[in-house]
Predict the 3D structure of the following.
Amino acid sequence: MSESTQNIYGGQAVIEGVMFAGRHANVTAVRRKNNEIIFYEVPRTTKPWIQRLKKIPLVRGVVAILESSAKGSQHLNFSMESYAEDELADSSKEGTAEAAAAKSAKKEEKSGWSLSMIVGVAVAGILSFAFGKIVFTVVPAIIEQLLFQHSFSNRVVHNLIEGVIKILFLLSYLYIISLTPLIKRLFQYHGAEHKVISAYEAGAELTVSNVQKYTRLHYRCGSSFIVFSVLVGVVVYSFFHWDSLWERIYLRILLLPVVLGVSYEALRFTNALRDLPVLRFLGYPGLWLQKLTTKEPTDEQVAVSIASFNRMLELDGQVSKP
């Protein structure tokens, strides 16, 4: 399949599984502890006014990020419920009335997702993203102001130091959480997601052995977007003057949509240039960060990722290579 006839797909890792976003549906495949692979499928329905916004440069980045956070949170919640159900089964004695009642209650809860529950999870996902991004933006600015307020008069230097603090903050956070077994497996599924997309884009047959040959790093990853948002923020913030810490924080929050929008366009630009020998280095910082956010997956994890991707292709009306 030529690259020109391919759709551009993306996804995300979830607890013990992978979600892929197709043209018509988002599909999550999760491996249960009994080795069964279960699916969670949500039709993609986008309001016309959202579609129009997604065609406007700079604006489309913010819209895409918020939409991804909202929809991704539903699939993450599904995977967490499945994982919790398995953990509950392990901790309960088989055959007891309590265990049977707990399993039954869990199944009823999972099958009883109403529209209000889905909307609630989506809103929570957006709020979680917004809160996390604000904290990640504001805290480094406060630290830099407290430590280097009187050391330099050049605002650009202050912004550069703030950017370095953000990177250190990010790397430390990712390293610490990657030490936990659950997050390590999440990062392995992240690697499995990238491998499947890379294999598909190369036109390879989607088998475990084939997919494992591909790199776990990918230019369109959200990890790359995080790096771009830091670098773009250094440039954007340099155009604005502040006289106090509160003004600095206010500007950071106010300009956050601008930084996100420009970062999204920068990521699209570098992805388009990834095959040019001289310019592909623009995407290297994001690939380096993925050394932390992805891990080499097992064959079983890759199999789950392939199952999710194939089901997504099936719902999109396509057929992967046999």
In short: Residues 3-315 form one domain.
